[in-house]
């Protein structure tokens, strides 16, 4: 389960970022703080989500956010709804954190100044131990994506879904891909 929220109203950084997107993975108990701009669209957030979260943790079972249904639909559209049809949406209340002291905001922003958006390197398959999987099932090699292939997010997610469907046949591979016993 993923919880998402935004810290807005921060002073602009050198790269014009003025908000922080907080993403908490409750299963792995990890938090990600991504610098964003308030002018980003839901599709921009979807691409960033795939680059920073899906490649590390896989597709979540559910996402909890305080954003409205319109944001959720745009976000899902940007991700490619095929893979994310099973996600559940739950509306929670308004944002509750508004720092009163401007100095407090500056101090918090300085602490998070080091958070840089990493470049998306490689394909999503490299992040789910493709080398181990191909060693166990060479027939999957036809789904390999060369680094020079220009694929958009939807095509990568379609290939990911095809790979996951192929892996469901083997219990050993399923354990490698989903160590907690949850279907992707």
TrEMBL record:
Domain of life from the UniProt record: Eukaryota
Gene3D superfamilies for the chain: Ribonuclease H-like superfamily/Ribonuclease H
SUPFAM superfamilies, alphabetized: Ribonuclease H-like (SSF53098)
Record domain Integrase catalytic: where: 1-102
PROSITE patterns in alphabetical order: INTEGRASE (PS50994)
Biological process annotations from GO: DNA integration
Alphabetized GO MF terms: nucleic acid binding
Designated name of the protein: Integrase catalytic domain-containing protein
């Amino acid at each position: 389960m993923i919880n998402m929220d935004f810290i807005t109203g921060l002073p602009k950084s050198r790269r014009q970022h003025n908000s922080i997107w907080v993403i908490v993975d409750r299963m792995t108990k990890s938090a990600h703080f991504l610098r964003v701009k308030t002018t980003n669209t839901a599709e921009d957030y979807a691409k960033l989500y795939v680059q920073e979260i899906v490649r590390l943790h896989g597709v979540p079972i559910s996402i909890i956010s305080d954003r409205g249904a319109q944001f959720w639909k745009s976000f899902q559209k940007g991700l490619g709804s095929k893979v994310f049809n099973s996600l559940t949406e739950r509306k929670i209340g308004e944002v509750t954190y508004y720092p009163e002291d401007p100095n407090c905001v500056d101090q918090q922003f300085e602490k998070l100044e080091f958070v840089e958006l990493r470049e998306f390197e490689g394909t999503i398959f490299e992040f789910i131990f493709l080398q181990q999987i191909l060693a166990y099932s060479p027939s999957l090699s036809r789904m390999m994506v060369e680094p020079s292939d220009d694929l958009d997010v939807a095509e990568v997610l379609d290939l990911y879904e095809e790979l996951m469907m192929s892996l469901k046949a083997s219990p050993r591979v399923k354990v490698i891909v989903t160590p907690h016993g949850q279907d992707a």
